[in-house]
């Protein structure tokens, strides 16, 4: 598919760059390369750590030191009230966040402190900066879960996704792909049972094969894995996960995207409020999360209207960014809300100077930027902003939702997952850079056994070039 909007949009941005001030940004980032879900617990690999670090380096050059520098964001020494970093309680996602932050704010050089008795103390790790990663409940354990809705804890979302398995589309694909998956059994039967290798488990099968092609020097029945077979495996996994994450007739299926939308609005609004008061806080928010949230948000924001590849699972280390900017002069405080705009950028896979994020129009529009007023209005149409709202939409009545259930809360209607806590804004604690580096490297060492990387390039998303979309005929 040749995308005809991104290039003109970028040209317009380049011509206006000098008159533009970026006020803040919100980033949603996928983890790097990892071991397969079918061999839980999953672990980040050395490749995955490097991908996160490289992405952090790029966004340092974009938002801290380059021409797109965020207004009054500290360049070298982190100011913790300017940056908020969150991740679900998940080994792969948390360590990915740490890797990203090491690239974003690298060591500031060795510092020597002289004590009262004359002793000199040298800072370890060349003055490495410690940035906390706040943990959130929503999405916890997502990388150990094969079931896409398992980490949401939302009863109605789980029910909605399960409805896909009784749809005519699913039944047709399950039947028509039976022989295709049968040929894959010798490749994966060391890990997956033969009756498991069907379209019903399309992503888990793809994930295991994907990891093996990147990290294993030998694969059983590898001759089966032709380029066409690998493409088909990836395409079927994309179709499977898209249908579990989004359905226009059943919006609750996209609860993860709804929560993200609420967090984006809350964060960017705090950036505006802080700047209007003349403060320099709340400049950059970075959240690490799973691919399900990407897919849910893509559907809610009608991004497939901009590029059909938005219906596919993003590659490792992919990122979407919401930039808050103005073309009005900023002096002392931020301009009025009607003079502030938002643009959406996406990059599939690790972002580098050679492969930068691309602007895409939101909400099925044609413009690369929308006013803050329009952005806020359209996001509020599907954003979930409070725990009470989450509980009402999900039909959950116990745990954190009991307070809104009227009475003792009763049963949770069979909700799956790790409870009904719901809103990821509920901070469960602080982890991250304060974790001993020895533990990090121990985890990374374990992760060297296997990892995951894309089989089929979807670099047309966020790579600023034309891409072919393979028709999903199976």
UniProtKB/TrEMBL annotation:
Keywords: Membrane, Signal, Transmembrane, Transmembrane helix
TM annotation in the entry: 426-450
Signal peptide: 1-18
GO molecular function terms listed in the Swiss-Prot or TrEMBL record: phosphatase activity
Presence of keyword Signal: yes
InterPro entries (alphabetical): His_Pase_clade-2, His_PPase_superfam, Histidine_acid_phosphatase
CDD domains given in the database record: HP_HAP_like
Family from the record: Belongs to the histidine acid phosphatase family.
Protein name (database record): Phosphoglycerate mutase-like protein
């Amino acid at each position: 598919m040749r995308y005809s909007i991104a290039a003109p949009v970028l040209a317009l941005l380049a011509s206006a760059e000098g008159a533009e001030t970026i006020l803040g940004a919100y980033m949603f980032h996928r983890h790097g390369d990892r071991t397969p879900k079918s061999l839980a617990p999953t672990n980040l690999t050395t490749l995955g750590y490097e991908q996160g670090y490289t992405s952090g380096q790029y966004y340092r050059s974009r938002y801290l030191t380059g021409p797109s520098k965020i207004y009054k964001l500290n360049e070298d020494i982190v100011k913790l009230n300017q940056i908020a970093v969150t991740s679900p309680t998940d080994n792969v996602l948390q360590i990915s966040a740490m890797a990203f932050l090491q690239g974003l704010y690298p060591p500031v050089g060795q510092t020597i402190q002289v004590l009262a008795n004359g002793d000199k103390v040298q800072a370890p790790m060349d003055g490495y900066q410690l940035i906390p990663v706040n943990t959130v409940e929503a999405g916890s354990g997502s990388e150990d879960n094969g079931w896409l809705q398992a980490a949401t804890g939302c009863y109605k979302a789980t029910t909605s996704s399960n409805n896909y398995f009784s749809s005519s589309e699913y039944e047709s694909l399950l039947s028509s792909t039976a022989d295709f998956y049968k040929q894959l059994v010798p490749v994966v039967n060391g890990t997956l049972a033969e009756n498991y290798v069907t379209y019903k488990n399309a992503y888990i099968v793809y994930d295991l094969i994907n990891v093996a092609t990147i990290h294993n020097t030998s694969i059983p029945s590898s001759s089966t894995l032709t380029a066409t077979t690998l493409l088909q495996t990836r395409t079927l996994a994309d179709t499977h996960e898209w249908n579990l994450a989004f359905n226009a007739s059943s919006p609750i299926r996209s609860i993860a995207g709804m929560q993200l939308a609420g967090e984006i609005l809350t964060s960017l609004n705090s950036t505006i409020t802080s700047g209007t008061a003349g403060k320099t806080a709340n400049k950059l928010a970075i959240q690490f999360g799973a691919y399900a949230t990407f897919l849910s948000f893509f559907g809610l924001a009608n991004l497939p209207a901009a590029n059909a590849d938005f219906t596919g699972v993003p590659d490792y280390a992919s990122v979407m960014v919401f930039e808050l900017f103005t073309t009005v002069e900023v002096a002392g405080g931020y301009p009025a809300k009607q003079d502030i705009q938002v643009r959406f950028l996406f990059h599939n896979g690790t972002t580098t100077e050679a492969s930068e994020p691309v602007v895409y129009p939101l909400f099925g529009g044609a413009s690369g930027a929308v006013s803050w007023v329009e952005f806020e209005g359209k996001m509020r149409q599907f954003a979930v902003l409070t725990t009470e709202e989450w509980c009402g939409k999900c039909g959950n009545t116990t745990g954190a939702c009991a307070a809104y259930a009227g009475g003792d809360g009763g049963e949770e209607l069979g909700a799956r997952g790790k409870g009904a806590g719901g809103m990821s804004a509920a901070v469960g604690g602080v982890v991250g850079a304060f974790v001993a580096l020895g533990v990090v490297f121990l985890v990374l060492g374990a992760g060297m056994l296997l990892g995951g990387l894309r089989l089929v390039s979807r670099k047309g998303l966020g790579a600023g070039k034309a891409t072919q979309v393979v028709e999903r005929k199976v």
